[in-house]
Amino acid sequence: MKKLLTIIISLTVFLCCADAQKKAERTYVVGFYNLENLFDTYDDPVKNDGEFLPDGANKWTEVKYWKKVSNMARVIKEMKDYNGRYHTLLGVSEIENRLVLEDLVADPQIADANYQIIHYDGPDRRGVDVALLYKPEQFTYLDSESIPYTFEGSSIDFVMSKEEQEYFRTRDILMVHGLIDGEHFAIYVAHLPSRSGDKKGSNQLRDRGGEIMYDHAMMMQKKYPGIKIICMGDMNDNPTDASMAEYLHGLENKADVTDADFYSPFIEMLKDGHGSLAYRGVWSIYDLLLVNNALANAPEGSLAITPLGKKGYHGHIFKAKFLTNQKGQYKDTPFRTFSNGAFIGGYSDHYPTYIVITK
Length: 359
Fold this sequence. Notes:
- With 359 residues, this protein is an alpha+beta fold.
- The protein has helices spanning 2-25, 62-83, 98-105, 162-167, 202-223, 242-245, 266-271, 293-296; strands spanning 27-38, 87-95, 116-119, 129-134, 139-147, 173-180, 183-191, 228-234, 250-251, 262-263, 277-279, 282-284, 287-292, 304-305, 316-317, 338-339, 342-343, 353-358.
- The chain is 27% helix and 26% strand.
- The strands form four sheets. Strands 1, 2, 3, 4, 14, 15 and 18 form a seven-stranded mixed beta sheet that branches.
- Helix 2 crosses helix 3.
- Residues 9-22 have low confidence and may be disordered.
């Protein structure tokens, strides 16, 4: 009898461990990181990269460039160590071209991740783009699209004149369609227009960005019923601002989300005082991820967004000590690459953010 009991206990432990291992294998990290001006040192005549040349304002040398690349790779590696796995999908912004991403994913610190790159050259006047890194062992790439930022078909009554609208250029929005664990996903990566010193009408430019993503996402839901959608990026707005809360239909409470809405997990974190960047002592969360109803309130047995940590937030800000100024005027804020025009060898003026999805 004692021997039988031992066998039963051992079998139970084995089955529990096997179940935990199976769940771990079906856990995926999806995140976003603004790399803060990852430019190469070469002059590109079609890009506004003058500041980031050896004889430019930032005196952007090969030494500084490779330090920057190494720093970005370290962040990805540290997040892997923290989570016990690499990101399955990592959206990035403020990158000059594909070359800098090829250097990044080849860095010895993260080369074993085997990250693949999806990137399109965009029309931004500052010369920066967005892109998506993905692990091909976990994400099956199907197709992608660089969605142009246009004013056509908008419901917004813009204060900008038609001439100003025609001149305006900003980052395209990247859409990537693929499979995770056999389930359809559409991933949007955006870097919405800056606040431009809160110039009149600049908020409408971000509102339009939210509207573009929303309209395309609703089209994808119609085309692929049950598809799971993640909108991520540096939105240059908080999750409570109109671009996210109204035009992207981002809601704070998961239970309120319908197929016409998105769940916005960083609203709760913002209200609790968290931030992904600081400006003049005020914390904001511009680095956002929002998910549609199919992922927020997923059918049983399918991939769903998962709460993290003791407080059960569904979003996470990777606010590691090495990414944070430890002293001086900017103590406890992100340790960036430049400060007051001087190269200080930091990482980014934004913290990376992410969500975790499990089955």
